[in-house]
């Protein structure tokens, strides 16, 4: 299955269920009562009432200090926001955030759904849980939200839910988005240094634990691996999710595929061998080996990491390709350097020094299960 930001699950992956029969009622517009507003055309559903976001009543004194310091950074240290990271520009039109919606029967206003069509279409996209007022925001910064349309017996049910991950929960408790983004949060030397130091302070104080509980937003793609559905973002491990019999979306948890050789991140674009049922993926690192390739067998068990030493420096490869005999990786100009923060630059970006023309690595030649290496540059 080609791994995109959405996928279609066949009938075998989703149990059947009984849908509400209220076909005599006219469709109506339902508006979510939350920090964001969205409209959904439904047959019969009460108005979704999400409680307004509030800070925790028992928020510690230290957490209050962190929140106030973050506010000072945004107010006095951040330079004026350029349009590319201004939430007033970015979060508009089709990128406007929406609220969660429980399973909602949908009205068919024209035509009909074929009874033989049985399954679900699920999409993953960034969707911020807070309006980042006055804060820089990139369209890839939002928390992962799954949107599902379950079709069965000529009826359709829509649902959208956030992927439940550590970043989402920590920011919900804080009452605002405090995890810096490599795409937007580092826009000036003073603000960047202060924001990085504040994040380190939160980690040391135990208010944020990315090392053990993950850092990613699970907002990039979906993949069906060994019969299980995962929401992915390359800055973290995959998150197992499921569609319930009622058409609801649930997060089962962060998943490492039972790795004897541990990983902390994984590409958001694994490749599936339709013949063997195996999945192939990689993870990149800021220290050698900069790239590690691995296989997940048809039973969902991760195999040993195989380092790619032909990748001579860190490169945000993001995606790759797999053939019957090769795995193809791209050495691109996008790299990472934490010291750039002190210069007011994002820690990830393009570097001219690396530009040596278009480069392509052909690695991991597979012959009878034995892996070897071959490098080719153009």
From TrEMBL:
Entry EC number(s): 1.13.11.51
The Swiss-Prot or TrEMBL record describes its family as follows: Belongs to the carotenoid oxygenase family.
Q: What is this protein called?
A: Dioxygenase 4
Broadest EC class assigned to this enzyme: oxidoreductase
Q: How is the cofactor bound?
A: Binds 1 Fe(2+) ion per subunit.
**Lineage: superkingdom:** Eukaryota
Note the PANTHER family from the entry: BETA-CAROTENE DIOXYGENASE, CAROTENOID CLEAVAGE DIOXYGENASE 4, CHLOROPLASTIC-RELATED
Q: Where does Fe cation bind?
A: 269, 318
| Keywords assigned | Dioxygenase, Iron, Metal-binding, Oxidoreductase
Does the keyword Oxidoreductase belong to this entry?
yes
Q: Which GO terms describe its molecular function?
A: 9-cis-epoxycarotenoid dioxygenase activity; metal ion binding
Q: Which InterPro entries match?
A: Carotenoid_Oase (IPR004294)
Q: Which Pfam families match?
A: RPE65
**What cofactors does the UniProt entry give for this protein?**
Fe(2+)
